[in-house]
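Hey, resending since the last one bounced:
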Amino acid sequence: MGVSLWKKDWKAERADIVDRMQEKLDSGNYKYLVQRFGGKEISSKYEWLYNLMNDYISARGYQDTILISHDILSHVIVDYFVDVDRLKEFQEIENLHPSKIYAYISFWLLRHKPMQVLVAEEAEKLAFVNEEFVCCLVRSYLFSEPENVPILDNQYEKVDSFVNTLLYYFQYREYSAKNIEIMILAFQAGRGYQYSVDHQ
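The structure tokens again:
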């Protein structure tokens, strides 16, 4: 299994990432994905996720305890694009709603778990590092618009409860891309209703 430790030299790492992803796509089973989506789009999705995970690892000081498996992350990206291809064909749509993008990316991250624990002594503490990262990913999307809006002090408990419940759900409950999408849409619907109430 190919692995990579967190590195500060992102430009050098980027070239390696593109090469590894292209090697995966050149295999006979996945050439059709390149024809459907283009190698650049697929590789850019890999880079986007890899960069986010590196930021997460750096922010939490996990550089010496967590690695990112290139091979596993490649599986995440390939499975994501296989699902996207099926969705577009079945639903006869050209572009996916962002809720679907985050739901299906999250699902395959949770299934394949590309972040791996390096140090045995840290295994128990970091057993759910992938689930924690996915919670951060989903939260970053849910709170991305409007930007720079502070959460009121009396609402922090509700937001934290939501995120903690989400993490527990990913850790111990069954999940699918579809019910992750429904959760995202339900959150957005509730926010839309609250916005309407506040502006009556």
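Residues 69 and 98 are 26 Å apart (CA to CA).

Sorry for the duplicate.
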